[in-house]
Structure formats: C-alpha cells, structure tokens
Amino acid sequence: MSVFLQRFIQNKKYLLLLITITIIMGFLFGFYQYKNTQPGIQQFFHFLFYFNIENYENHYQLYLVQSGMMIFICTYLSTSYIGQIGLLFICFLKGLQISFSIQYVVMNVQIHFMMILLMLCEIILELIIIYIIIYIGLYISSYVSLVNFYIEQNFHIQSILNYRLNFMIAALIFLTLSLAFRLYVVPLF
Length: 189
Fold this sequence. Notes:
By secondary structure, the chain is mainly alpha-helical. Helices cover 78% and strands 0% of the residues.
C-alpha cells in the first residue's frame, strides 16, 4: 500500500484526474437531482453567479462567506489523512452548486450571448479556485497518510508549512480575482 501512495503522490496528475471526475459527477448529479431537492438547499446553491440584471437577485456576501468557509474547511481537512474524503466531498458540492446555479439562471433570466460569456468566465474562475485549493489539500493529506501509516520518518514541517502558505496565497489571489471580476467587470455589461 505504501508503494501505491508514494506513486500516487509522485504522479500528481492522478490528483487532478480525481478532482475532475468528482466535479463532473457533482455537476451531473446536480442536473439529475435539482427537481427533487428541498427548496432551502436549492436556494443555498443558487447564487454562484453575479449579474447586473433587474430581475436577478445577487448574493455577493453569501458567495464571499461560502468561499471563505470553503478555504477554511479545506485548510483544516488537509491536515488529516481522512480529510481526503472531505475534500472530495467539497469538490462534489461545488459541481452541484455550479449545476444548480446554471439551472436557476436558465429558468429565471432571459439568456443572451454576453450572459453566457460572463457565466463561462465565472465558472472558469470558480474551477481554478477549486482545483488549487483541493489539489494542494489532497496532496498534503496524502503525504500525511503516507508518513503516518507507511513510512517511518518525521514530517518535513518546513515543506508542509510552505505548501500551506502557497495554498493560502493562491486561494486568496484567485478569490480576489473572482470578487473583482464580479464587482468591476460584470457591471459593465
């Protein structure tokens, strides 16, 4: 088993593949399950997009709180060997949120080309944030389980702190870009 974990950590493309599959599964499940979901849960996942349209309700603060909590929870889960399951569940929920938000926009707003382009940009920014946060979290969590269960060595605390700092910096940079896009670019259209 330790050989599997060592190869898994060395071949980091498997982490990206795992994240991609989980997001796609959440996305497809969201389209399948949208009509059967309770209204409170639907409403919580509706407001991913930000539009400058009269009949569309924007929840900028909710997006900021959700993203901040996601970064905090992913940081916490990356310190545990069992956190891999939680991190993948967050990927699944993000795919679910993207599909719920797309369905909400399609049902309540008249779609035109510029709106599709803005939605695509916001989805890409959101996916970049998810990939960065979950990728680094899964890598650290895999390393923790490798060192705890299979290799008799000490943690390289300096490298783990460096990864965690890179994790936080990258997540905050892309969250700031996403927020700036929502506040400054979207209102232009």
